[in-house]
From TrEMBL, chain A:
Self-association state and partner proteins as the record states: The complex is composed of two ATP-binding proteins (PotA), two transmembrane proteins (PotB and PotC) and a solute-binding protein (PotD).
Family, similarity comment: Belongs to the ABC transporter superfamily. Spermidine/putrescine importer (TC 3.A.1.11.1) family.
The keyword Oxidoreductase is assigned to this record: no
Function statement: Part of the ABC transporter complex PotABCD involved in spermidine/putrescine import. Responsible for energy coupling to the transport system.
Enzyme Commission number(s) from the entry: 7.6.2.11
Species annotation: Roseibium denhamense
InterPro entries from the UniProt entry: AAA+_ATPase (IPR003593), ABC_SmlMolc_Importer (IPR050093), ABC_transporter-like_ATP-bd (IPR003439), ABC_transporter-like_CS (IPR017871), Mo/tungstate-bd_C_term_dom (IPR008995), P-loop_NTPase (IPR027417), PotA-like (IPR005893), Transp-assoc_OB_typ2 (IPR013611)
GO molecular function: ATP binding
The ABC transporter domain, residue ranges: 41-272
One Pfam family named in its UniProt record: ABC_tran
Catalytic activity: ATP + H2O + polyamine-[polyamine-binding protein]Side 1 = ADP + phosphate + polyamineSide 2 + [polyamine-binding protein]Side 1
Protein's name according to its UniProt entry: Spermidine/putrescine import ATP-binding protein PotA
TrEMBL record, chain B:
Protein name, UniProt field: Spermidine/putrescine transport system permease protein
Keyword Membrane: yes
Major subcellular location class: membrane
Lipid biosynthesis among keywords: no
Sequence ranges assigned to domain ABC transmembrane type-1 in this UniProt record: 325-533
Subcellular location: Cell membrane
Family: Belongs to the binding-protein-dependent transport system permease family. CysTW subfamily.
Transmembrane spans: 34-53, 329-353, 360-379, 416-434, 466-485, 512-533
Keywords: Cell membrane, Membrane, Transmembrane, Transmembrane helix, Transport
Membrane topology: Multi-pass membrane protein
Pfam family, one: BPD_transp_1
Amino acid sequence: MRKQICFSSGIAAAEVSERSKTKNTYFRFGDTMENSRGAAVKYDSVQKSYDGESLVVKNLNLDIPPGEFLTMLGPSGSGKTTCLMMLAGFEPATHGEIYLNDRPINNVPPHKRGIGMVFQNYALFPHMTVAENLAFPLQVRKVGKAEQQEKVKTALEMVELGAFGNRRPAQLSGGQQQRVAVARALVFDPELVLMDEPLGALDKQLREQMQYEIKHIHENLGVTVVYVTHDQTEALTMSDRVAVFNDGVIQQLSTPDDLYEDPQNSFVAQFIGENNKLNGKVVEVQGEECLVELGDGTKLKADKVNVSSVGDKTTLSLRPERVEFDTHDQMDNLVNGRIEELIYLGDHIRVRMNVAGNSEFIVKVRNRGEKRKLGVGDTVQVGWALNDCKALDAVG
Amino acid sequence: MSDATSNQVLTTQDGKPLKAALARALRREKMRSLLLIAPLLIFVLITFVAPIFDMLFRSVENQIVSETIPRTVVALEEWDAETGEAPGEDVYNALLFDFIIAVENKRHTQLGTRLNYEQTGLSSMFRRTGRRVDDFGETYADQFIDLNEAWKEPVTWVTVMASPSWIEAQKAWASNPTGPEPAFELSPAALDVLPATSDLYGAFAQFVQVEENDSPTEEDPWTPIYKALYQDLSANPNAATAFSGEAATLVGQAAAAVPAFETVSVKELFIDADEDWGSAENWAVIKTFAPTYTSGYFLSAADAQLTPTGVEMKPDDEQIYLFLFYRTLLLSIIITISCLLLGYPIAFLLAALPLRYSNLLLILVLLPFWTSLLVRTSAWKVLLQQQGVINDVLVWTGLISDAGRLVMINNQTGTIIAMTHILLPFMILPLYSVMKTISPSYVRAAKSLGANDWTAFWRVYFPQSIPGIGAGAILVFILAIGYYITPELVGGTSGIFISNRIAFHISSSLNWGLAAALGTLLLVAVLLLFVAYDRIVGIDNVKLG
Ligand SMILES: Nc1ncnc2c1ncn2[C@@H]1O[C@H](COP(=O)(O)OP(=O)(O)OP(=O)(O)O)[C@@H](O)[C@H]1O
Ligand SMILES: [Mg+2]
């Protein structure tokens, strides 16, 4: 089950939280939180440097509305964990302020922030049983014995580990440990839960299952979740919004579909999904459109996204599945290319072509069962719509 | 399916049982690995296991009494210590024979020393008697020689006592002496009718041949042998009939004269040499410690003693070891605890600091290992003595008056301070290596779950560092309990350990049996504590990293 994808680009954050509010409350752990929902988080011009020489996080501004599932996605070393640690209170911000429900928390120690956290290695206390692990946050909050037991039981049932309360973490499988870690981060009804690559250690199948379960829990509880991953599929499947990090800067912050359909720069286009790159120069600008001349003189029409004026160097970005072999004269762009390689993948066929001097040009053709007359070495015409081709900042 | 396969033996392709094939394949591997560890194994066996067993054995071994005075031990079996009377003449007779052999072999002083552990005064009694025992047979020797000058000659004795075949062999050897003289053999006739004389003369002959490298044909016999001959002839007047030739004449003449001999009491001779021989108490000690194995050392080590009436505690003013054991344990526990209190924060710091700084700190922790133990201990003397640095500073700052200088050395305080310092690294290192493996994310997780710094430490960090505490505590405790140099140097009288007494008995009093018993008790105590520790903490809860 996957959440309904909203194709109208730019889903409003308020709308997201509205959805969360109406979720059923079956999984609530305690009465006190009955009508609560997630917390709002705000990073205001946050900067972070560990060594005083380089900035690991450069001027981060980020608004997370209550109840949102926000994912920080980015390559290794891009500063995701650092952002999370500043929010959790384990690293001080070098500059700027972080707000939790409109309250500045820079000077609030971690244990008073009330933020649940799932660590990459789970950090389950090895000397305690699963039940003791779950009871720990309740004990330090001086919750009554009976209520503790009740909540621990509910939490264990939520992650379908009802029978495992007396085991030690070491006696659980990776996936079970992960679920305990999630349950522990949620058992004290935090308004905000942080997860730092919680599924990194699991195999693919288990990871997909857990993605679904975490998403499900989020939808049921309505807490705000800030999730860190470097797996783009994970980010796209689970999140309400994704913040793509690179080099300490958010490259783009938008819904998963926007991220794929409307990348704001070349980094995002490269990082999310598969992508054909064509380098060229802007020769004509017309409103939101522009004409780009490639190295071999081919002229292509493209959506003007990240270029400003005639003469700018640009990289055109084009998704492989948007390229058509069934061309017709109304198409915005039509070019000839030579087929270099055919890869049969069952549901579709990948065709590697040489188009306008780029021999890594990939076209995905849906396998409709009809005998296509494609052969290696053939020169064929391909075409695509103007809107599918984005003129972004130049790379390489 | 499993039924079918479990009943039939699995075989290899050529039909041999799989298990045998596997065992053979592994045997080479095993042999090779055994060869690799063989040097170490042999080294450990020779230098560690064997000495320990030797020590354990020494603590119960007591052959010296039964080996040095065997005849007396046998004779004493009849005697009952309860009567309070010294034993009869026969025991003293046996003692005379044993004693002359022991004296000639110079073993009587060793026996005296051994028995002196049990009863003071026995050592001097043995030594004093040893000087005179050769005269104890004089009366009989004179009378035999008066009867016939021939009894003075060694050759006469050989004629009577030696077997004819030995006499032949000896003569052949004497004409062409290459190699040692043939070993002396008693004649069957003498063995038969003169048992006591044979016994003693045999010992004499062997002594002369082996120890003195001389011949019985040339050495004057010990005077108690005359006493033995007198004894045999009085018991058996017809002894001459067993002999032939010259020997028969000599023995016959002597046997006829013996009833008229003037006699002396051996008992009185001994009492005359040292009146302590007349004390039933001393004889009781000898009888008590006659068996080859004794619990005496262990009893002494536990402040008890073996008396003819059974085991009882020593008088209060002689009790020393139990208290020393108690003090050793107590001080070791105190030292272990202070090592833990001082070492835990340091190890924590080491584990928390970035590698660059922690390495430097670790070198500082290990620095004491690079200086000699003696130097470090002596440094404490300089610091702690009454005219030492610390007292001077305290007086100078006015915290204490000049008259009230603290006594911090040559007592328990000195031992505790110096040993805590010396053993501290043994606590820090295991703690550090365990703490290093505790991921900081646990404490972070605890804090994110709402625990403050102290709760996070106490509920999450500390329990995970317990294996390190266990390892460090065991290491320090076991090292402390056997420590000896430092208490010796800075402990004075109130700060010494049981090991100092063990060392004393090994190097000064030479009572190795007692030292062994004390050592064994110490070993047992440590093992018991170890078992208790296993029960309480669990030995699998001990980790070195
Ligand atoms: N404690 C620290 N001291 C110094 N530099 C640090 C520290 N932690 C992180 N950094 C640096 O900050 C940068 C960002 O690190 P961060 O852990 O936030 O990356 P990340 O996005 O979480 O990467 P990953 O996906 O690999 O976890 C990296 O260059 C890293 O070397
Ligand atoms: Mg990270």
